Amino acid sequence: MKRIKRFIKYVLLFYVFIAFIYWIAIRPLHSNWGATTAELHMQLPDDDVISSNRIVSTRAININAPKEKVGPWIAQTGQNRGGFNSYYWLENLFGAMMVNAVTIHPEWQNPQPGDTVYYGKNEGYALVSLFKPNEYYSLSGWTFYLQPVDAKHTRLIVRYPSMEVRQSKFAALYYYGLFEPLHFIMESGMMMGIKRNAEKQ
Amino acid sequence: MEKSSSHVSLKMVAFNGALVAVAAVFIYALMMIIYTISRSSVTIVQTMPPSERAAILWANGFSIAYSIAVFSVLMAIPSAAAGSVAAIMLKKLLPYFNRRFLFRKAILISFVIALCLLTIMYLLLYSLLKEWMTFRYPETFLFWFVFPAFIFLAVCTAGGSKINQVLNTAYQNGIPRQEKFIAKEK
Questions:
Q1: Which among A25, B43, B88, B177 would be 20 to 30 A from A108, CA to CA?
Q2: What count of other Cβ atoms lies within 10 Å of the Cβ of residue A3?
Q3: Cα–Cα nearest to B80, from A75, A68, A4
Q4: B145 touches chain A (CB under 8 A)
Q5: What are residue A62's DSSP bridge partners?
Q6: pLDDT band at A107 (very low <50, low <70, confident <90, very high)
Q7: Quick check: helix, strand or coil at residue B41?
Q8: What is the ipTM of this complex?
């Protein structure tokens, strides 16, 4: 039993170390991963629906493709459409039944405000609030914005408003403890998935 | 002479069962951390240019480790309870079914007890989760139910053989101290 007790002690120490590094160094890095100062303060479509109780992250990535090749991958977002272009194997551990499309589907290219976008099978959903082909796409404030750099390069800027964490301690605990790091993993995976697909075309 | 195991404290057995269960949860969590970081890192390396890789690799790795760590600490609480119950069951039932404390028999009995406990736990879970606990989601089923079930069976079987060994040693050493004390007083 001594060995088991020692093992538990070392694992807990390892967890404390992980949490310390995460809070000191990683969280400030991932909150605005890839975004420039100008992009952080940039006004994006649908920003007006974000309340002050939410914590907002802005992330950005360079894509070596024109925005016309990036936009279609974003337009078909959703478990009930072309997936989220993220780590589907991780989403499926939580029963999401996610399948990432490997091609562009014309039938999913014209989402309308009010359309339902599922996060997983039998899971939560969001409604499309704004969409302009190859420009922006928003799910109630979670906005994907395409900014052309030149004819062959695009910046994908993603702004995400958290749940209302400043209103409830329980929501804050859940958000900081689990949701925020998980959301970063999946959102950065999604941004890289969109980049990979657009550049492949 | 009737074999006795009363001096092996039930409280201690329950505590040790909880510790073993927590250790098992942590082992599974560490395996998940390694698997998830490795698999996602391959994707990152394949996608990001070398100059932009380091930040996302660090951020992704620590975020995965942090969230799994938090989750495993939460999961350790019900697992400790299940571990305690399993250890108590093993301690109570092993001497009943295996009066001569035979090693192989102890392993078999421990496995059967673990299987019965697992069936009860999964029936309870099924009554709560219903359609979430089906073979329709193979990855989910493997991750949440099949692998933990294997770990539970393995730990219970190993734990049962250990309890059997402790009980056997106690018996070999004669009447427990507490019983000797009571006998003297009489």
A1: B43
A2: 8
A3: A4
A4: no
A5: A155
A6: very high
A7: helix
A8: 0.93
